[in-house]
Design brief:
about 240 residues, alpha/beta, Carbamate kinase, nine-stranded mixed β-sheet, globular
Length: about 240
C-alpha cells in the first residue's frame, strides 16, 4: 500500500460519461481512458468497486415520461447498466486487471449474481468488482445503488466521476455563469438546497451511514488517482 488515502472505494460513473461527445452509446476511447485510470489506483493497492449508470443507452425515467410502465422502463435501464459494465470489464481485462461483474438481476451466463461476501472477497484479492443492474428494483437510481453497495461493502468513500462538471455548484454552471463551486459541504446542505448531486434517497442513505462523497471530473486524465492520493479537487461531501 502506498500513500493512498482510501483503502476501499466505490467509483460511480454516469452512463453519459461513457458516451463522450457523441452523447449516446459506448465510446471505446472513453472506456479505455477510464479503465486506464482505474488500473492506476488498483496498482496503488486500492480496492475498487464500480457502479455504472445506463443513461447513454436507456433511461427508465424517459421511458416512463413517454407513457411506458415505470417498472418495465426501469428494468430496461438496469439491462443498459449491464451492457456498460461488461464493456468496462473487457477494457480492464485487456489491461491485465482481474475484474468481476456482479448483477442484482441473475443472468449467470454473463455475470455473477450479487453476493455481498463474495464481492468483498474479490476486493480483498484486488479484483475490481463492477456492480450492475442497479439494486434490482425499479424506482431506484444507480446513485442509490452506489450508496447501498458502499454501505454493504464498508467502502471508505464514494468517488462520483462526472463528465460535464468538476464538482458541486450553487447552480448549474452550464446555465448560470455566476454559479459558484463548493469545496466542501454536508449531505444536509445537499438535501436542503436541492443541489442535485445525487437523488434524495441516495443522499439520505449516505448521510445515515456516514459515507463521504467526492464529486470530480472524469474528463481530465489522472483525476481518479489524484482523488485517491488525497489531492483537493472537486467537492467533498461529508457524511455527518
Amino acid at each position: 500500500m502506498t500513500n493512498a488515502k482510501f483503502k476501499r472505494v466505490v467509483l460511480k460513473l454516469s452512463g453519459e460519461a461513457l458516451a463522450g461527445e457523441q452523447g449516446f452509446g459506448i465510446n471505446p476511447a472513453i472506456i479505455k481512458s477510464i479503465a486506464t485510470q482505474v488500473k492506476e489506483i488498483v496498482e496503488l493497492g486500492v480496492e475498487v468497486a464500480v457502479v455504472v449508470g445506463g443513461g447513454n443507452i436507456w433511461r427508465g425515467k424517459t421511458g416512463s415520461e413517454m407513457g411506458m410502465d415505470r417498472a418495465t422502463a426501469d428494468y430496461m435501464g438496469m439491462l443498459a447498466t449491464v451492457m456498460n459494465s461488461l464493456s468496462l470489464q473487457d477494457s480492464l481485462e485487456q489491461l491485465g486487471i482481474e475484474t468481476r461483474v456482479q448483477t442484482s438481476i441473475e443472468m449467470r451466463q454473463v455475470a455473477e449474481p450479487y453476493i455481498r461476501r463474495r464481492a468483498i472477497r474479490h476486493l480483498e484479492k484486488k479484483r475490481v468488482v463492477i456492480f450492475a443492474a442497479g439494486t434490482g428494483n425499479p424506482y431506484f437510481s444507480t446513485d442509490t445503488t452506489a450508496a447501498l453497495r458502499a454501505a454493504e461493502i464498508e467502502a471508505d468513500v464514494i468517488l462520483m466521476a462526472k463528465n460535464n462538471v468538476d464538482g458541486v455548484y450553487t447552480a448549474d454552471p452550464l446555465k448560470d455563469k455566476n454559479a459558484k463551486k463548493y469545496s466542501e459541504l454536508s449531505y444536509l446542505d445537499v438535501i436542503k438546497n436541492n443541489l442535485q448531486v445525487m437523488d434524495s434517497t441516495a443522499s439520505t442513505l449516505c448521510m445515515d451511514n456516514d459515507i463521504p462523497l467526492i464529486v470530480f471530473s472524469i474528463m481530465e486524465e489522472g483525476n481518479i488517482k489524484k482523488v485517491v492520493l488525497g489531492e483537493t479537487i472537486g467537492t467533498f461531501v461529508r457524511g455527518k
